Amino acid sequence: MKTLIRLEITRALRNKKFMFFSVIYPPALYVLIAGSNSNARMPGLDIDLSLYYMVAMAAFGAMTAVLMGNSERIAREREAGWVRQLRLTALPGRGYVAAKIASAATVSLPSILLVLLTGAAAMGVRLDAWQWVAVGLSSWAGSFVFAALGVAIGYLATGDAVRPLTMLFYFGLAFLGGLWLPSSSLPGWVQDIGAWVPTHAYTALGQAVEAGHAPHLGDVGLLAGYLVLFASAAAWLYRRDTRKA
To answer: Of the residues 2, 92, 151, 175, which has the fewest C-beta atoms closer than 10 A?
Structure first.
């Protein structure tokens, strides 16, 4: 399992095209959205626009790296026969899932750090030292949930269907979780649904730190539950393919 984790991390870092879009795209989008109005206040929230979208784009960038990359890569590996070769070894399902999550988390970390650096250097965001560290760590730890979801989708969908299915999850979760617009600006029924999606709890971790508070235990518990659910589903789908083989 350790060997596979090292291999997956090396493969992820060597994919220059994927690294570019995963690492450069989120901070560029952050500047595009908040650049001209960095000192404006978010409607209905006592927070600067630049500060709100720094956390939102850090979460969005991490989700882009781990969800989009994992699902499509796994679907291609299944079609190429690589996953079948792994199933012939003694590698357990949990080992495969752990390797994919580890490689995805390696890619998400530079994206998160670059968004935070952009916020400090270009957007004038000012936080205490502990807040910078806490925002970075919570954004990175929360990305593990979406890495596990990406593994599950990669095993659930065929090569032709994986991209549209991933995009459906990708944009749906981003919208419901408040990555594009504050949840408070959405209709009440959308807010009720959004309160239970993992992206809502994910962004809430960083927003709590921005306000000077510790992350809410309810948000941490919700993300932990989703991580167990998605990782278990991914491991089960891996074992199901093994039985088919």
So the answer is: 2
